[in-house]
Amino acid sequence: MAAAQTSLTIPRPDDWHLHLRDGAMLQTVAPVSAAHFARAIIMPNLVPPVVTGAQAAAYRERILAAVGKAQFEPLMTLYLTETTNADDVAAAAESGLVKAVKLYPAGATTNSDAGVRDIEKVVPVLERMAQIGLPLCVHGEVTNGEIDIFDREAVFIETVLEPLRKRVPGLRIVMEHITTAQAADYVRSGGDNLAATITTHHLIINRNHMLVGGIRPHYYCLPVAKREEHRLALRKAATGGEARFFLGTDSAPHPTDLKENACGCAGCFTALNTMSLLAHVFEEEGALDKLEGFASRNGPAFYGLPVNDGTMRLVKRDKPVNFPATIADVTVFDPGFETFWDVETTI
Fold this sequence. Notes:
Number of strands: 13
Oligomer: single chain
Number of helices: 11
Structural class: alpha/beta
Low-confidence stretches: none
Mean pLDDT: 96
Helix content: 25-40%
CATH class: Alpha Beta
CATH architecture: Alpha-Beta Barrel
CATH topology: TIM Barrel
Radius of gyration: 19 Å
Number of domains: 1
Strand content: 15-25%
Strand order of the largest sheet: 2-3-4-5-6-7-8-9
Order of helices and strands: EEHEHEHEHEHEHEHHEHHHEEEE
Distance between the termini: 33 Å
């Protein structure tokens, strides 16, 4: 019998969906991501949102100031609104500043009130994006109150995404933080212009973890975790070596008192322990050799960027790795099990 693998060296990973917030929270969480990840697609849902190229440039400077000397490149996005200027989007993309535009259906998640209510009003912008090859990152849920929250991703695919892709066939789309078997299957069938990110926490928790035996607010996220069959489908997609799936943590910090609240915020803060937890998951699936593709290669390939020159070395310790329960006033995602994989070095 072959000895169990106890170390793994991969190109330094990227995070293709990250929330850094702003102000004091940015100062707290940005260095955590910069310690492990070389680049990250930065979400634009600030208050007010990052809508223009000028706003994206200013936010980028604030991020760089927060990470200090760390080798970290924020890949900026613009928040799509019904009044977004296509020329501004094109100019920001041509300059190299902006790598994607983010579609939030209005009211779908945190700070999404300025999002899109009528997809017809943004088609001209999407057509321009298709012309220049700029990807659209999609929060794929409908917001109709009559649709069950556990069905909103599947309904979005059928009623919004598929018609949109037929309307603008050249548009490159990333379905972010997919949570269902339907989404994984749809991405597989979607051709070279369609990809998806998968979060760390959706590989680990299902809706029972959040609801059985009492409500666990730190497992509440949007899109909400689904049934076990969907978690297993996501594991298959992430660990199967398919190039169209890659890591987007959707690490989303909130002060603990706003999570443990009568109307708690959605989001899991996973930036600190994602790589250790991914090694645990991929080992469980007998797929440690596939972690490099998921975390370090597939995302750059879709976005047309080089694989990072640096490396990350993960080692399996003899004793469980102890992660802090909080960073400042943000609760760190607790997977509910011990993990022995640790990030030894990031160069």
